[in-house]
């Protein structure tokens, strides 16, 4: 029974009660967790929200560095690899049951899947890789959102003053702090399952700004008097391979890292699959959602990357939307940047919820008698006709996480460099290595058989690509750090 007290507040009564475990089985699954309500459409929305993030804005730049030949091929290659390994990973959602006629134990997150299939040592490596990746992505989203908000402010300023030579400097740090404040509020959403509405809004926003970027790109590409790119990009020009020397090599490798970042959602696949109601079988639904999500995003990626390259040629900007400048139609560019910001607000939560859940479960398991960690308070607000479940530990921990992410974003505000570094460091282990090794272990694929050789070759190929992209992106970060002063911006 809940123990409660009533506190009188302006406008009505606020009931505060301490919650105890419920005996109502209709609201929980067979393992005691909250009832899952996800469908193929909510899962697809989660995937689109996770995949079409800030990475799409850098694809025109990436294609420009690779050229018309290698650029689209790289985009399709990463898409095919991601889709194939996502199918393998979906099979690992449930652990094998002793009786083949029964469903196995659910693995609620990526880490549990690795532990069930590969053991404790691999699990430790997975934890480091996955959470570093998720932490890095939220940093990248903070940087991107602040850039988009600054672009809106500048567009309004230039239009108001009537000239583009006007002084309209706006600090990205101000908007990073604002973005962090919004995320502090949204981070109190209890769990991944409760994010379905935010993911749908974010997915709509991602489609909207992608369409605007494509439309603006087509308009600019049809104008005369500018280059529409080259076959070789920065790789091959005027009969020379890497005519710009070693700097061009690093840039091309960084471009691969940016493309890898654009497909960095596999680390969330198990968490997304764990929101699906059953029946029908979660694995079959998730595979269909993977097909819908990845095929949809790949089409948008090809359109944004290729049309953006056609519009700007070899001078394609690192962020597609800011590359259109602050000219007419200024309101349309501003609207697109507003959509980017709204989308990234939702995508941020999709990527940080697994970290929240992991730390909170660890704390609950290790400190079962700690009242700060264990006690939940139910606050009933009659005016809003809603109930909010509060926990002091969650409030402090989640707020601290958002603060730390915002601080790192302010220290390292390098858009393309950071995206490339995150994408390169996470693509091989999370998207390729662990799904392949789990599938081999689960399906008992024998060594040196055709399938085993194919899977290991794919893993080795992806490792080489990831290492190369990491080196290129890391070199670019070092180059920027030589001249960068933290918390100082030039007008």
From TrEMBL:
Gene Ontology CC annotations of this record: membrane
Keywords linked to the UniProt accession: Amino-acid transport, Membrane, Transmembrane, Transmembrane helix, Transport
Membrane spanning stretches: 43-63, 69-90, 195-218, 291-310, 330-351, 395-415, 421-440, 452-474
Pfam name, any one: Aa_trans
Subcellular location: Membrane
Residues in Amino acid transporter transmembrane domain copies: 36-476
Alphabetized InterPro entries for the sequence: AA_transpt_TM
Taxonomy, superkingdom: Eukaryota
A Gene Ontology biological process term: amino acid transport
Keyword Transcription included in the entry's annotation: no
Name of the protein this chain belongs to: Amino acid transporter transmembrane domain-containing protein
Species for this entry: Ceratopteris richardii (Triangle waterfern)
